[in-house]
């Protein structure tokens, strides 16, 4: 039996090899750019694009990404992630623990619709590229979700009848498409889905922030999994702000309900052990 060779220094060095950044004594490079050249010359949004995508964005790409990230930064304490951050900070775990607790609530339901919508848009475009009619594709997608009793991701909102972030984001997309900065294909897809929902329902189900930002990410060429990561980056700003504000209240162990309110009990009626 041949024993495996002992790892070499090169094996150890290559264990975490990366094309994202070069870090050596007195050297910090992001995708090949020396950090000292980037500081003061490249924005944080451009740095996100650079590290994730590998090169610097065009001004048009940067503007759309910034709009998407800015629009999802906060949604108040009624958002579970924000509420968790505020409760966590009163438990004495510090800002980093509060932020981590909040980010961990951003799952498939709260925070995941953008990723699902982006995947839907990519799949829809493949069908359109194959020669199918866009409106018919949209109708079939909506029908499929309705038959399964599901919600079309990126549409409707539990809090807003009309999401105030929808129109300005779509306007930016329409203007970018008009200037030839984006293809406009995914913008056409999302509006076709919105029209299909309006035709099939008793009342309109307008696009929400997840649908609008997913369209931006689709037009910018991001993969679906990155939509959630970008949303986490965006919402972390609001999470930090709320956790910091709550830390100033000096309140300890702040629960989901203000005292002396308690959650209604729906279990077995009061009962006792024998002899009591």
UniProtKB/TrEMBL annotation:
Residues 249-276 are annotated as: Disordered. GO terms for biological process: carbohydrate metabolic process; tricarboxylic acid cycle. GO terms for cellular component: cytosol. Pfam families: Citrate_synt (PF00285). One of its GO terms (molecular function) is citrate synthase activity. The keyword S-adenosyl-L-methionine does not apply. Keywords: Lyase, Transferase. The keyword Lyase applies. Pathway: Carbohydrate metabolism; tricarboxylic acid cycle. Its EC number is 2.3.3.16. SUPFAM superfamilies: Citrate synthase (SSF48256). CDD domains: CCL_ACL-C (cd06100). Belongs to the citrate synthase family. NCBIfam families: PRK06224.1-1 (NF004864). This is citrate synthase (unknown stereospecificity). It comes from Cryobacterium tepidiphilum.
């Amino acid at each position: 039996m041949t024993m495996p060779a002992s790892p070499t220094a090169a094996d150890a060095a290559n264990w975490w090899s990366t094309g994202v950044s070069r870090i050596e004594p007195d050297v910090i490079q992001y995708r090949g750019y020396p950090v000292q050249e980037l500081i003061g010359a490249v924005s944080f949004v451009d740095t996100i694009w650079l590290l994730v995508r590998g090169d610097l964005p065009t001004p048009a790409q940067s503007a759309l990404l910034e709009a998407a990230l800015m629009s999802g930064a906060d949604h108040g304490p009624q958002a579970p992630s924000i509420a968790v951050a505020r409760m966590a900070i009163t438990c004495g775990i510090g800002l980093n623990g509060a932020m981590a607790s909040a980010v961990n609530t951003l799952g498939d339901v709260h925070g995941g619709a953008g990723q699902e919508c982006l995947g839907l848009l990519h799949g829809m475009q493949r069908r359109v590229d194959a020669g199918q009619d866009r409106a018919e594709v949209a109708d079939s997608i909506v029908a499929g979700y309705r038959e399964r009793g599901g919600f079309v991701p990126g549409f409707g909102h539990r809090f807003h009848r009309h999401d105030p972030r929808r129109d300005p984001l779509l306007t930016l997309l329409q203007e970018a498409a008009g200037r030839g900065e984006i293809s406009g294909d995914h913008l056409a897809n999302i509006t076709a889905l919105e029209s299909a929902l309006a035709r099939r329902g008793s009342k309109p189900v307008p696009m929400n922030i997840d649908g609008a930002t997913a369209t931006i990410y689709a037009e910018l060429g991001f993969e679906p999994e990155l939509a959630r990561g970008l949303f986490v980056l965006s919402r972390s700003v609001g999470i930090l702000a709320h956790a910091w504000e709550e830390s100033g209240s000096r309140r300890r162990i702040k629960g989901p309900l203000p005292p002396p309110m308690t959650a209604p009990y729906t279990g077995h009626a009061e009962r006792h052990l024998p002899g009591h």
